[in-house]
Design goal:
The protein is mostly beta strands. It contains no helices and 14 strands. The protein has one domain.
Length: 183
């Protein structure tokens, strides 16, 4: 589980449960900026086979914008339905599987929230020692730039310990830095 912060203010949690080939992701946070409140609730249920997404069901409320994504894989690729719209994606695909350090080697990823098929530009920033659960931990720091049809959608920075375990995330937003810290 990760505690979620907007800059240094706690705003919620994001739980990941991984068992065999099944992944459950549950995020719930509320961000207060000046006189505005933003809420985000996301649940995703994903199944993988040899690193390839074979099924997905997700529901998201992004401050009143609701999304429902479902899909099933076949030999031809992945058939996705997002808010009633059909999308067909080729071959072995993946969502933003931060828990798998190999995510930094992917060229395209599916956004489980809204089914956007995003181009990924990954770079390794370098090594860094950061505080993880109160301990100094040597990590590898990576940056993912996600874009759709040439337009940047968001940036995510990820930190992995020496064993490849995901320990931190940072995503710059207009309201501040959204930060995930291992609980």
């Amino acid at each position: 589980m990760f505690d979620v912060f907007m800059d240094e203010d706690p705003v919620g949690t994001h739980l990941y449960e991984i068992e065999n080939n099944n992944v459950v992701s549950k995020a719930n946070y509320r961000i207060k900026v000046l006189f505005m409140n933003f809420t985000y609730k996301h649940e995703s249920f994903e199944t993988y086979d040899d690193g390839c997404l074979t099924a997905i069901h997700s529901m998201t409320n992004d401050d009143g914008d609701n999304y429902k994504v479902s899909g099933k894989g076949s030999a031809q690729g992945m058939q996705i339905t997002a808010n009633g719209k059909e999308i067909n994606l080729p071959g072995c695909i993946s969502t933003f599987t931060y828990w798998d350090a190999d995510v930094v080697n992917k060229k395209q990823l599916l956004n489980a929230q809204n089914a956007e098929w995003l181009d990924i530009e990954a770079s390794r920033i370098g090594d860094a020692v950061i505080s993880v659960q109160g301990k100094a931990v040597k990590t590898q720091h990576h940056r993912l730039k996600a874009s759709l049809k040439g337009y940047e959608k968001f940036i995510i920075e990820l930190w992995y310990d020496e064993n490849g375990n995901w320990v931190k995330l940072l995503s710059p937003t207009a309201a501040g830095d959204l930060i995930y810290k291992l609980h």
